[in-house]
Amino acid sequence: MGDRILITGGAGCLGSNLIEHFFPKDFEICVIDNFATGKREVVPKQSRLSLVEGSVADKPLVEKTFAHFKPDYVIHSAAAYKDPNDWAEDSETNILGSINIAHASMDHQVKWLINLLTKIHTL
């Protein structure tokens, strides 16, 4: 088996394309997604593809996922943007979630963390 990649926001447009790119290359993939904007059907049941349903803003969930999956690489593409008037939820996901992913990546000695901000609000 190949290396392990954790993809946050894996059920979104960007995340699902990352799954399609890395899965044929023999990577084991774990996806974290809360399905606020992503689609469950883009994370198919496969032997090398696991799904954790929840938010990157949930620090215990992030810690448990890193401890269990032990990723070599993390691609952080989770972002909240569904309601431009709900800055609190967006801040939790986009800022606190990014902090949780960064800390867990350091704590678990991930080789590479790629942080992809998929969308920001325009005023």
Order of helices and strands: EHEEHEHE
**Number of separate structural domains:** 1
Categorize the overall geometry: globular
Mean pLDDT: 89
Q: What is the subunit organization of this protein?
A: single chain
Unreliable sequence segments: 118-123
CATH structural fold name: Rossmann fold
Radius of gyration: 14 Å
Keywords:
123 residues; alpha/beta; Rossmann fold; five-stranded parallel β-sheet; 3 helices; 34% helix; globular; disordered C terminus
In short:
This protein is α/β, with parallel strands linked by helices and 123 residues long.
Structure, explained:
The chain has 123 residues and is an alpha/beta fold. It has a single domain (4-115), classed as 3-Layer(aba) Sandwich (Rossmann fold). Helices cover 34% and strands 20% of the residues. It is built from three helices and five strands; from the N terminus they run E-H-E-E-H-E-H-E. The chain has helices at 13-22, 59-69, 87-107, and strands spanning 4-8, 28-33, 49-53, 73-76, 112-115. A five-stranded parallel sheet has the order 3-2-1-4-5, with helices on both faces. Helix 2 runs parallel beside helix 3 (87-107). The longest helix has 21 residues, at 87-107. The termini are far apart.
Write the topology of this structure.
Layout (H helix, E strand, L loop, with lengths): L3 E5 L4 H10 L5 E6 L15 E5 L5 H11 L3 E4 L10 H21 L4 E4 L8
Parallel strand pairs: 1-2, 1-4, 2-3, 4-5
Helix pairs in contact: 2-3
